[in-house]
């Protein structure tokens, strides 16, 4: 006859198996050939290149797991490596956030930040230094997004846009409209979260679309700025502090326009850069190279190669055609109190936090305990 111990062990084993299988499925990276957006060759694994006579060789010692070089004007992809490999995007996802939300908010709007708007940020998030109960112009908040990669600025803007869940849904819809079918948006700031993925192809689409917006171009090209600080209790005057763009190529690489970098322990380094020379604008995205500095070194090397190779290689694919530039609403969205917002998109879990597979396993374990107690109560007395 089964004993209580056997019953609990069996339930715990089922819970553990579900947890392991679910976690594995959630983080499994699809093969690069899973998507053929932009052309069949871009859906193939490995380096894709079709050089003509006189074409320069690709840079040596490239370590990025995925990268892409494209002409922003024509949309031609000059070369790529695992273009559709889905990887965590880190803060480069903020390009999609900006492309989606910038047209929806008047940059001259002044907003008073609440405690609730800053709650729920993931552990270790990059922040510009926003404080509750102080007023900020939307224009300043965008500088906090682009220069400091501030997740606090993203969250405030997302709440002004109607809430985290609404903003995530809008970002996902925008990705679909751009042809960025590798992208799954879970948080608006790119913080490491189960299931949040993008690709070098998609990040390049976000940059190309965003750069059509003059404000986007200005923000991503800004090297440093003053950000509103605290109010001096004695004088009543509000101070400010300096912030600097974390893009290490800005001001150092000839013709660089922007656009956005990112880094987390899980994603590694990610970067999309745009540069202009001789009337030609190139876009390069590099994801997960061997180290943090390599993302800049390899982007610069691929930009150099792209300018030298233009006209000497046959394109291996194309960027999806750009949809119309999103128009701002006739009436700007109203900032909805946090307690009234749709909570369908929960705050990002802290690093090492428990995702839904963990909670599912915990729930099954709890069910096992409850079932065991119920089993004991119903056993016939001897």
TrEMBL record:
Keywords: Carboxypeptidase, Cell shape, Cell wall biogenesis/degradation, Hydrolase, Membrane, Peptidoglycan synthesis, Protease, Signal, Transmembrane, Transmembrane helix. Residues 336-345 have a biased composition (Low complexity). Residues 1-27 form the signal peptide. Residues 61-287 form the Peptidase S11 D-alanyl-D-alanine carboxypeptidase A N-terminal domain. Residues 319-350 are annotated as: Disordered. GO terms for molecular function: serine-type D-Ala-D-Ala carboxypeptidase activity. The chain crosses the membrane at residues 356-376. It holds the Pfam family Peptidase_S11. Substrate binds at residue 260. The active site is at 91 (acyl-ester intermediate), 94 (proton acceptor), 149. This is D-alanyl-D-alanine carboxypeptidase (Penicillin-binding protein 5/6). The lineage of its organism: Bacteria, Bacillati, Actinomycetota, Actinomycetes, Kitasatosporales.
